[in-house]
Amino acid sequence: MYIIELDRWNIKQGLPSKPYTDTDYIRADANIQGINNAIQYASANGFKHVILPRGQYALCYPREIKIVSNITFDLNGSTLKVIYDSNRKSPFDTRITTDYYKFVGNSISFENVTNAHLIGGTIIGCRDDRNFSNTVEESKVENSYGVIFQKSTSYSSIKNCVVRDYMGDNITFSSSSVRPVAVFNTGLTLNAIDYTTGQSIPSSNTLTTNYINIPTDSVFSSFLIAGAGYTRLTALNNKEVDVFFYKEDNTFIGVLKKRKIYTSISIPKAASKIRMLFANETNPSKNPNITLHFGLIPHHNIVEYNEVFNGHRGGITLGGSYNIIQHNVIRDNGKGTNSFLDSKPVFNSSTRYAVNQEDSYGDNCVIRNNVIYGSNHGILAGCYSIQIENNHIYNIDSIGINLYSLMYANIRGNVIYNCTNPFGLMNSNFENAYVNFCENSIYGGRMNINTNDLYTLNISNNIFVDVMYINMGSNNLDNLFKNNHIKFINVLGSPIIIVNNIENCYFESRTLIDVIFRVYKQNGCVFNNIKINIQTKNQVTMSESVIIDNCEYTNSILNNHISGTKDREVRVTKSEFKDSVIKVGNINTAGFSAITIIEDCKLIANTSKNLFSTDFNQPNGLIKLIRCNIEITNPNFSYLIDHDKSVTDTFTLFLKECKFKYSGGTPLNLTYYDNAIPMIKFISTDNMFNNIILPNEDPAIYVGYDTDNTFKANVTLELEGDIYTTTVDHNLNTLEPYVLCISDTFQIIQPNISIINNNSINIKHSKNTTLLVTIKKL
Question: Between 20 and 30 A from 222 (CA), which of 68, 75, 372, 741?
């Protein structure tokens, strides 16, 4: 353990006051040089722990404190502060310009080091001193960082520090290596490489590079393939590459097949050169847009137990691979429309955040157990994979967690509270990308997941409280929305759920609330105090259907209502309706039908006074019950159907093979409908009524047979030659087997009958009469 000798290394405690003089800047620069010299001395003499005597120390740009390998630099509770004046030129600013506010730099750097650590102090950036006299231009400045991990740094950390007030990010990871090599299109040929000999062979769909030398200025045991420049993406069609290794004299050593980009690729000891094979490529002039990072990008570093705040653009830029951000308070960075608490202006771009991967890339970084609040965005992460777990993210002006350009993400166990958009998903740019969003608690906001079909998305076991909009936005049928609990406590308006399929989800509200469901399949879901407004995504242009199975409804309304849309059929099977209403409607949509079919379901009326309702000013609609059990215990049960409007001939109710039971002490006098005017038909066939007195039948409305399987028509035969004849179009698709009955007013008659086709029967008789024709499937 080495305690820095301040006088020996020309380091002075104390912070000067503005306006700063050249002497103040020179003093601050001397402090940085002294600290660097002291750290180098400690490292050269075998010390592992270097302690800065507690105090306040001035820093300035552009010189940086350099952390070295195998050293822990302990700030010992000290404060390091950048002195800065936006309106006065620093003596170290060599630019010939008057925009002094654009003079930037970094304070502490981990560069190509391993097992290096920074602990226990406060680091304050230039934003604290900035004047922002030129508010518009100075608010655009972003290129200064507090602590930076770069150029292959590994197994290093910053811990128990306060880092604040830098113009870019308070802490940043740069996806840079100690030796990057850009690969352009020079040397690409339309060839393959023989896996045994390492020699080129003809190909029509693969490109190969020429020999690429492995840098010799260091001993490199690994490298990775990444994008070029600021882009996170390569231009390769296939993100897996075959890498061939050769000795100095081009002797082939061997090949590593299907090495994916952004991940470590080992280099054989004897290798001096490599060649690469790119699959599914045919254009030798193509720029693959890749960089080879020898020595890797920063990996296995940790940022933990810090407080990171007041970053102008953002809090932490994440990058590299296997780096961890954990147990930090990351607050008030990259603020949104509200100003900072110190009233300084916000960064001029919407990309303001707590944690962001920006132009960085890497594999399997981790963000966990952090408190994040007071930013425009919470976490913006992508490229190549990410783990975001057990964070508390709240009071975010825009997106809580937003993902982009990635192959895999695991978003688990986070609390996301009062964020305008809790979770977002942008383009993947990778095939077979997978996102797991599970066991999170989301309170408030609108979750618009604009995912393309390259993602497979699993949203399961989450709780959503007062989330007004959930849109998975994809046609990928493999997406899951499963085992989620959706709760509405205090909302204004109608929440919207846009998901292809939902399974085993629970929806509840304290009072009856209208929720729009643009969902094609619902399975195993429970609804309590929910008015389910059934819609579909393409309803304006297409007639679509909805399938519901094994669901439970309590004090709810299942509403199949069309207004300005095409036909819609809703089929419900093996479900239970408890004090709930099944409703259909058609408003101002002539020529289209709303049809709801309820099959093998149970309907219970303990408190409800009706089972069905309608809302029509246009014909027509249908509710059809097949093999359902209806249990009525409410003695004040009024009628089966409640019509909202009295519009002629708009609705049909079809009851088939259902069992009705009233549990009261005296039989229930059942009324079919509150108003006969809207009824087209009331069809009842093969139903059982227990302890129920049925009303008188209206012959203009009531149909007592199965119209699906039975054809009835009154026909008048007309003279044709010497015989009376007519053709009956019965519109039954299948006639075998069937029963045919023809009668006049008084008796069954036996005419001459011939089948023309499956839909028509010709009837001939010796006299002109009006006959009743009945055709029924067996």
Answer: 68
